[in-house]
């Protein structure tokens, strides 16, 4: 591990946050970060799995919330985003050749947390695309005592008219050598710079939306545009595979916004209905990013995470 850049000026992270470079077994360089060092009387360490387009600095406030509740936290830039290696000539394209590659990143994050001597038990907090990666990791025995999901991407919301053809189109593009092209209706510009606050699909908090915009304005190298056709095809395939599996035994809570417009609500409801001991909370009026919603929603979400983690940590 060698020191990597960490943009403290845009992160609002706890004191002591730092980032390192590691190289995964397949040669991809990844940026990992300890966002919150262990507080006094630390109760464990949270592995933060972020969503598509995101980067470690975006979760500085989340790390502060977790630290205030007794938890250290670590996270990473997934391959293909943030400052981790990007695989295409057009770096604005969100791309991965196989979703299984993300599990190499997961293994590096766990290795990093242990190398730093961060307290166990470990817990998982996973948002959106990170929810798909996290659910797969749980099936592959990720060593966590409990998991909290925020709007997990166990399916992607599609217009009913396009749903029957979406998988066929993306699979055909991938098979015929056009997999690196942007998915339909997406573009190189990252969402928070392209969309107005009014009717945005991420948050109802204007200050948080403005903060997310400032982050990529100040550090444009962190921004990511739309996904590639191959990424979208892999996301469809992974969602189908995950939905066919019975939920793992890991204690779980899942929260999602009542106005969710990015991931498939029915997929979340069905899987959580089958999750023994799992609990689903739908927040009226909230959008996709619960950890970026107004403070009362954020506080309630992190309180729920801490309540689960406290209980399961004591039992571990």
Automatic annotation (TrEMBL):
<protein>
    <submittedName>
        <fullName>Lysophospholipase</fullName>
    </submittedName>
</protein>
<dbReference type="Pfam" id="PF12146">
    <property type="entry name" value="Hydrolase_4"/>
</dbReference>
<dbReference type="InterPro" id="IPR051044">
    <property type="entry name" value="MAG_DAG_Lipase"/>
</dbReference>
<dbReference type="InterPro" id="IPR029058">
    <property type="entry name" value="AB_hydrolase_fold"/>
</dbReference>
<feature type="domain" description="Serine aminopeptidase S33">
    <location>
        <begin position="42"/>
        <end position="295"/>
    </location>
</feature>
<dbReference type="InterPro" id="IPR022742">
    <property type="entry name" value="Hydrolase_4"/>
</dbReference>
């Amino acid at each position: 591990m060698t020191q990597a850049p960490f943009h403290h000026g845009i992160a609002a992270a706890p004191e002591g946050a730092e980032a390192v470079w590691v190289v995964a077994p397949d040669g991809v360089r990844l940026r990992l970060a300890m966002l919150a060092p262990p507080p006094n009387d630390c109760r464990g360490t949270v592995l933060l799995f972020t969503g598509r387009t995101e980067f470690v600095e975006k979760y500085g406030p989340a790390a502060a919330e977790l630290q205030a509740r007794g938890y250290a936290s670590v996270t990473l830039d997934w391959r293909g985003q943030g400052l981790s290696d990007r695989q295409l000539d057009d770096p604005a394209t969100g791309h991965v050749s196989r979703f299984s590659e993300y599990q190499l990143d997961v293994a590096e994050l766990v290795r990093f947390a242990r190398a730093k001597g961060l307290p166990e038990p470990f817990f998982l907090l996973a948002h959106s695309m990170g929810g798909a990666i996290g659910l797969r990791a749980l099936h592959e025995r990720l060593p966590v005592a409990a998991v909290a999901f925020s709007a997990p991407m166990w399916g992607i919301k599609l217009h009913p008219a396009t749903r029957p053809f979406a998988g066929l189109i993306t699979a055909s593009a991938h098979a015929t050598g056009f997999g690196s092209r942007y998915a339909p209706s997406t573009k190189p510009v990252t969402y928070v710079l392209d969309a107005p606050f009014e009717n945005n699909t991420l948050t109802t908090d204007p200050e948080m939306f403005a903060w997310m915009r400032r982050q990529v304005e100040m550090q444009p190298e962190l921004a990511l545009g739309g996904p590639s056709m191959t990424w979208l095809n892999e996301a469809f395939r992974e969602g189908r595979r995950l939905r066919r599996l019975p939920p793992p035994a890991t204690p779980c809570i899942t929260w999602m916004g009542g106005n969710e417009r990015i991931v498939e609500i029915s997929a979340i409801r069905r899987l959580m209905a089958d999750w023994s001991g799992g609990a689903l909370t739908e927040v009226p009026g909230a959008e996709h990013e619960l950890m970026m919603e107004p403070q009362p929603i954020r506080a309630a979400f992190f309180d729920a995470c801490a309540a689960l983690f406290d209980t399961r940590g004591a039992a571990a």
